[in-house]
Design brief:
Helices cover about 75% and strands about 0% of the residues. By secondary structure, the chain is mainly α. The protein has 2 domains: about 5-55; about 70-275, MetI-like (MetI-like fold, Orthogonal Bundle). Helix 3 packs parallel to helix 6, helix 4 crosses helix 6 (about 140-165) and helix 9 packs across helix 13.
Length: about 280
């Protein structure tokens, strides 16, 4: 083996070691939270740092599932996530396809307008939306929150899907039209199957946004029965006298499990769905 190959393998070995160390550093908070959730101690700060739980117990998980309305919060988050994904993707797919394939007056201005809207912080709209929802009696209403989430994520979804549609050759559509395919058949039987990776990844990113969203959920959902998981986690820590970090970390671990399952299921679509969607604007 010559010196060039030795240097190459040595460099790759060092690089892999560095990546392993970085990954371990990123896992430290997660491993500590897992150990704390399985621990019988009542505070995260009363004892030293340790990866192994002290007094292994599943009591914290039993309490969060049986004594707290965690399942109710989970159901609220599932309803909001599914409703938002359906509405946002129905609007985004059609809009992104129109922006990608059709040339009409005001098209560029509309795309730029969407980018400008996406640049404003969400908190600027809070007061106006609250007054509007109070007038329309949509406070404590899941449908109102779905409308907010869908409108917020439509902008991102349109941009991501448009970039992917731009990578699909127009010749495929022209050949389908020659064979007699209508516009609806072209979209459902040709374009959507080809854009499946981007649609799946965009849907999952919308899902993750809704699952973790805190600001709107705690502002427009005003009681415990309508809280989402993010609002419920805040509620667990709202009282300084009843605060329990092991209970909180148990809830946080349970909240993360569905998203991890979804991520591993669609992992093979992640690279193609994200990179191809960012090729063209």
């Amino acid at each position: 083996m010559n010196k060039r190959k030795i240097k190459k393998y040595a460099g790759l070995t060092i690089l892999n070691i560095v990546f392993i160390i970085l990954c371990f550093c990123g896992l430290v908070p997660i491993l500590y939270a897992l150990a704390l959730s399985l621990s019988s101690q009542t505070s995260a700060l009363s004892s030293g740092f340790a990866f192994l739980p002290k007094g292994l117990t599943f009591e914290n998980y039993r309490r969060i599932l049986m004594e707290e309305p965690f399942l109710r919060w989970l159901w609220n988050s599932i309803v909001l996530a599914v409703g938002t994904v359906i509405i946002a993707m129905m609007c985004s797919v059609s809009c992104a396809y129109v922006f990608s394939r059709y040339r009409f007056k005001g098209r560029i201005q509309a795309i730029r307008g969407l980018l400008i809207l996406n640049a404003f912080p969400q908190i600027l709209t809070m007061f106006a939306i609250f007054r509007l929802f109070k007038t329309l009696n949509l406070l404590n209403n899941r449908f109102g929150l779905i409308l907010i989430y869908a409108g917020t994520m439509c902008i991102f979804s349109i941009q991501n899907l448009k970039g992917y549609f731009d990578t699909i050759p127009v010749e495929i559509e022209e050949a389908s039209k020659i064979d007699g395919a209508s516009e609806m058949q072209l979209l459902w039987k040709i374009i959507l199957p080809l854009a499946k990776p981007s649609i799946i990844v965009t849907s999952v990113m919308v899902l993750i946004f809704v699952w973790n969203e805190y600001l709107f959920a705690t502002t427009f959902m005003l009681n415990e029965t309508t809280y989402t998981l993010a609002g419920g986690l805040y509620q667990l820590q709202a009282n300084d006298y009843s605060r329990s970090w092991p209970l909180f970390t148990s809830a946080a671990i349970l909240v993360s499990i569905p998203i991890l399952i979804v991520f591993f299921v669609i992992q093979r679509h992640m690279v193609s769905g994200l990179t191809a969607g960012g090729v063209k604007g």
